[in-house]
Amino acid sequence: MKLWQKDTEVNKEIERFTVGKDREMDLFLAPFDVLGSLAHTAMLADIGLLEKSEKEILHKELKNIYKEITSGNFTIEDGIEDVHSQVELLLTKRLGDVGKKIHSGRSRNDQVLVDLKLFTRHAIKETVEEAKSLFDLLIQLSEQYKDHSLPGYTHFQLAMPSSFGLWFGAYAESLVDDMHMLQAAYKISNKNPLGSAAGYGSSFPLKRQQTTDLLGFEALNFNVVYAQMGRGKTERNVSSALASLAGTIGKLAMDVTLYMNQNFGFITFPNELTTGSSIMPHKKNPDVFELIRAKSNKLQALPNEIAMITANLPSGYHRDLQLIKESFVPAFGEITDCIALTKFMLSNIQIKKDILKDDKYKYLFSVDVVNDLVNTGTPFRDAYKQVGTSIDNGTFKPLHDIQHTHEGSIGNLMNKEITGLMDNVLRGFEFSKVDEAVKKLLA
Questions:
Q1: pTM of the model
Q2: What is the number of domains present in the chain?
Q3: Measured over all CA atoms, what is the biggest interatomic distance in the chain, rounded to whole angstroms?
């Protein structure tokens, strides 16, 4: 079944090529397609294109289909082009001709647009919740290990003293900025394209604000041409936010992989969380973090992939946009999986104590020795030269009792303030408004 097909049978090879992975990807969109149809048919009844009794039986059956989808009992049958066709086919089989009425005032173009918007804002919510859970763990670990020292590096050279408290806390604050990016992406996704039809509106007196309210969207995509132009642009902007989050996770994975190396030896994990070698019995490989790093790099490439698909497209719908789903839709599962595994692994991290007592790290304290001389009245440039000379001639003596007290330093992590930043950005999502709208629609 194809919503667009008339009397001509499409060549099988053309069908295979043009349908692509739509059936597979559309299973992710299925519950949201039903939500869109619930809102659309409610509006159709209000403008007189459906009888009240027709709306009621359609809504009852749409809710049954929604339950089938959420319980895993929904498939897109062979020969059915997409989720929109499958839902309409089920309604027509079960209800007769009334099932054929649900497409009035719609195009597959705005159907897939609304499905993607609803899917995306739901997936962003799940991603934010997973990221918040990791954030909480990082703050906990930062406080737990705030007194455990760690070498700091610049240019891969020993630089200054750091701490595990600073290290964990840095990634926690990075997640705050990632949430800002996701919030912007969420706001872009939380606008209603339904009613734009094929991109040029409809001669039916559609009530687009009504479907906006029913689906819990923050606002309309007002201009129907822009609603269609938003296809691809929305995915690119959302994927940029996911790439920012992936960048944080990937950098953390790289640090962990490095710090597990025997030449560093700062951290380790239980044997059952690492892998071994087929010939080297001493190996504890950080395979989980290497895969997280690779998956994060792949996610960071996604915005460019989408940009390359959409870069030379004029306004209006083009089939090129279909290909975006194949990379975009699974990206949320990839990022949440990476976050969950990062959280699981860090929950079992083992920290080495007294790292900086090793004599090879003594030059980490050179800046603190310089600053100590400055505090006794020596001009900074003279103190710098004096300490440099002591390093060159082998007479340098480190100052292990360091006092870093300013905001965000070893002795003043500001984790309470960082947590406040996260709480503030999370309030800005206002997920509860969407949840209430969807709950009411399904009631």
A1: 0.93
A2: 3
A3: 94
